[in-house]
Write a structure and sequence with these properties.
By secondary structure, the protein is an alpha/beta fold. It is built from ten helices and 15 strands. The strands form three sheets. Strands 3, 4, 5, 6, 7, 14 and 15 form a seven-stranded mixed β-sheet that branches. The two termini are 20 Å apart. The mean pLDDT is 92.
């Protein structure tokens, strides 16, 4: 059997549990597509699956040890082989998408978890898209019910989800205000944000502006403050939150948000994005039209994936981190 290099872990913990190993290459089964991974990207979800925290995630990932030994979800690459009954792809197609085990030289996936990569986008920029952009899309369109002309505030506009949220909100016809640190102000403005608030110099709740939608990727402000900047029927979409210990993590913040908004006209909507083929196709079209682009902070070789996780842990990523096999 052919072999490949992959980042594996057989126990929960910090980046030191990750190892570069030679493992068997996946076998192409019926309805599956074998992709040579040319780029992958790192998400906070990968950190949770590596560390096994909050502990509730182990109900999905494995109680004592990880069910899936190879890390990674987002990827872009070239189709190497297709299984029986695959109709959408053939060998040589350039694709991107999301599925477990992308921190490897090859990955075997369902044809419904990938779409063809736009010709005007590199593999690295395509690999940065799936989870972050899909979270932004579903948060704005489905949970936030964003309509053209509405005002949206994006707290954490320079991160993976935030950079896509700014662009998708503009594509949906919104007036966008992004909140970020000083070093990211010009970058967020270049993505199309109508207004940019440097949180080191200004409190986004200090003025008189009111927003129809608040996308919160950080969870660093009180729920009272978040409510104060929303219009009477504004929607607060909770994407991220403080860790709050190893047991429930951000779930505490999500639960508090639901309760705080329970008896008012405003709404709080916590959610986790669901990967769908339909939304991958939407993102593909936005890429083709030039309405969204990926912001890449740093690139790491596959062998240095543990260092990429250490950088992610610092919490100041500008856009996405890329892993290249």
């Amino acid at each position: 059997m052919n072999s490949m290099k992959a980042i594996t872990h057989n126990r929960y913990g910090g980046p030191d549990v990750l190892k570069l190993e030679v493992v068997d290459m996946p076998v192409v089964s019926d309805g599956k597509v074998l992709v040579r991974v040319l780029a992958a990207s790192l998400n906070p979800a990968d950190w949770h699956f590596m560390s096994g925290t909050p502990y509730l995630i182990r109900l999905q990932a494995g109680l004592r040890t990880p069910k899936r030994s190879i890390q990674g979800i987002d990827f872009a690459g070239r189709v190497e082989a297709v299984g029986k009954d695959v109709t959408q792809f053939q060998s040589g197609d350039e694709v991107f998408g999301g599925s477990g085990g992308s921190f490897a030289e090859y990955i075997c996936v369902s044809e419904n978890s990938i779409v063809k990569k736009p010709a005007n986008v590199t593999f690295e920029h395509a690999a940065a898209v799936p989870i972050a952009a899909m979270t932004a899309l579903q948060g704005l369109r489905d949970k936030g019910r964003l309509q053209p002309g509405q005002k949206v505030l994006i707290n954490g506009a320079a991160g993976g989800v935030g950079t896509f949220a700014v662009q998708i909100a503009k594509a949906l016809g919104a007036e966008v205000t992004g909140v970020c640190s000083t070093r990211n102000v010009e970058m967020v403005r270049s993505l199309g944000s109508d207004h940019v608030i440097d949180y080191k110099l200004e409190d986004f709740a200090a003025g008189n502006s009111r927003y129809d939608l608040l996308i919160d990727n950080v969870g660093n402000r009180s729920l009272r403050t978040c409510r104060s900047v929303l219009s009477p029927k504004g929607i607060y979409v909770v994407v991220g939150g403080p860790k709050n210990g190893n047991w429930v993590g951000p779930i505490t913040h999500l639960a508090k948000a639901i309760f705080a908004f329970m008896f008012v006209s405003q709404r709080a909507v916590p959610f986790i994005a669901k990967q769908t083929k339909a939304d991958l196709l939407v993102l593909k079209e936005l890429l083709e039209l030039g309405k969204i682009r990926s912001v890449i902070d740093r690139r790491f070789d596959l062998k240095d994936t543990a260092d990429a996780f250490r950088y992610l842990e610092l919490g100041h990523t500008q856009g996405k981190i890329i892993i290249t096999p």
